[in-house]
Write a structure and sequence with these properties.
Blueprint (H helix, E strand, L loop, with lengths): L4 E6 L15 E11 L4 E11 L2 E11 L5 E8 L1 H8 L9 E10 L2 E10 L5 E6 L15 E4 L8 H4 L4
Antiparallel strand pairs: 1-8, 1-9, 2-3, 2-6, 3-4, 4-5, 6-7, 7-8
């Protein structure tokens, strides 16, 4: 079972550049396109995680269940499969380019997404495994504006919709 993911909206850019005190920040660029089928959504992710000098590509499939949860599967695909699937991208959605910063603060794993293209005036913070929001110990350099965990407007697939 996948852990609970909690999302929060942050001010402007991530951490206002104040993450330099952290011992390790992993930064990568995600490029995501959406494929729509009848009952599932596929996400193509070109991850800037580089193995042996090559990009790594993933196909993530999300399927909604009746009890307001979902199943998410992910598999690595070849560059040619990625290019072939990208040609089937949903024309009603933008490809999302976002910079993701990952770090651990007091034994809690954080991911901060900053949307590069299309640019958005906020960043999103994701925290996996936090069942109770009172258990989250936010770093002092992060200013949370709003808990958007259950707000579908902040799902990446909705943020990608062309206006």
């Amino acid at each position: 079972m996948k852990p609970t993911i909690t999302k929060f909206v942050l001010t402007g850019g991530p951490c206002a550049g104040k993450t330099t005190a952290l011992s390790k920040i992993i930064e990568k660029l995600d490029v995501s396109a959406y494929l729509n089928k009848e009952s599932w959504q596929a996400l193509l992710d070109e991850s800037a995680l580089i193995e042996n000098g090559h990009y790594v590509y993933f196909l993530t499939t999300k399927r909604a269940l009746k009890n307001n949860s979902r199943i998410e599967t992910e598999k690595q695909i070849t560059p040619s499969e990625y290019i072939q699937l990208l040609q089937q991208a949903d024309p009603n959605r933008n490809t999302i380019h976002k910079k993701r910063r990952c770090f651990v603060w007091q034994n809690q794993y954080f991911e901060i997404d900053t949307f590069v293209d299309p640019p958005l005036p906020f960043s999103l913070l994701e925290i996996e495994g936090a069942e109770n929001h009172d258990e989250i110990n936010f770093p002092p350099f992060i200013k949370v504006l709003e808990d958007v965990t259950d707000n579908k407007e902040f799902y990446n697939s909705n943020l990608a919709k062309k206006k």
